[in-house]
Design goal:
There is one protein chain. It is built from eleven helices and eight strands. The chain is α+β, with helices and mostly antiparallel strands. It has two domains: about 100 residues, no CATH class; about 170 residues, DNA integrity scanning protein, DisA, N-terminal domain (YojJ-like (1, 3-Layer(aba) Sandwich), CATH 3.40.1700. The longest helix is centred in the N-terminal third of the chain and has 21 residues.
């Protein structure tokens, strides 16, 4: 005990601002790591790895030679297994790190972006009224060329009529997603990545469109608008979170906020009801 107190005293005497910075940086990294994998299968795998590590520490402390030998010779295999099992999470993390601190360059004026928003909202209103299913992706800082390549390139100016023609039930591209960049429809009929299986009870609540929207919003900073053909409801996915049962005004406000648009002073839209927000995790 005396030796422990002595070591603690020496540590505190040499404790400086660099140590504080070091601890804070490690804490931030751990926080974002846990936030990235919370409520996913990867979190359960991480807990299993922690248990294996504790077993190895106990084996070495108690000098259990056979168990220590197995543990010591399995480290490399465990590291490779971790990389394979955490591949989706690592890809998401690297993608977010690559986009961290980046400043989006607005290549067209706010008036043009407002016009784009109006066309999108008008089309969404008509899609909702007709109960035509739709999946509309607004690209942000994360490039979506991989997703674009899975569909048919269009590269046309966004308009209400064009969106309606794409999502017409008998149209050949109506089942896929539309990718929009800077007021132009890059492609239609695109396939979005699905997340891991949802928690029990969520699978029947959300359809393929909603799950695909969540999947893409988890892998990128894209904004995904969903129109349900079964219920005629509106939803928006951002950062892995799905806000459902939105009114048209609430959807408009969410898009204005995400796109950093200035709302006209005469306009007024309802705020999204917090009860309508449903966080969906893989």
């Amino acid at each position: 005990m005396h030796e422990l107190l002595r070591n603690l005293q020496i540590f505190l005497e040499n404790f400086g601002w660099r140590d504080v910075l070091d601890i804070l940086m490690v804490a931030v990294v751990l926080y974002f790591l846990l936030r990235l994998i919370r409520d996913t299968q990867a979190f359960q795998i991480l807990l299993g790895l922690v248990v294996i590590a504790l077993i190895g520490i106990i084996a070495q402390a108690l000098q259990l030679r056979l168990l220590s030998f197995i543990y010591a010779n399995s480290i490399q295999a465990i590291v490779i297994t971790v990389v394979i099992l955490f591949q989706p999470e690592l890809r998401r993390a690297l993608n977010q790190i690559g986009g961290f601190g980046s400043v989006r360059i607005l290549r067209h004026r706010e008036t043009d972006r407002m016009k784009t928003l109006e066309q999108l909202v008008q089309a969404t209103a008509q899609l909702q009224e007709n109960r035509w299913g739709a999946l509309i992706v607004l690209e942000q800082t994360s490039g979506l060329e991989t997703v674009v390549s899975s569909g048919v390139r269009i590269d046309a100016t966004l308009s209400r009529d064009l969106l309606l023609s794409i999502f017409y039930p008998n149209a050949p591209l109506h089942d896929g997603a539309v990718i929009i960049r800077d007021g132009r429809i890059l492609a239609a009929g695109c396939v979005l990545p699905l997340p891991e299986p949802l928690a029990k009870g969520e699978t029947h609540r959300y359809g393929t469109r909603h799950r695909a929207a969540v999947g893409l919003s988890m892998e990128s900073d894209a904004i995904v608008v969903v129109v349900s053909e079964e219920r005629g409801s509106l939803a928006i996915a951002r950062r892995g979170e799905l806000s459902t049962n939105l009114s048209l005004g609430a959807l408009r406000e969410a898009l204005e906020r995400e796109l950093a648009l200035t709302r006209p002073s005469s306009g007024h839209h309802d705020l999204p009801d917090p009860a309508d927000r449903a966080e969906v995790h893989p």
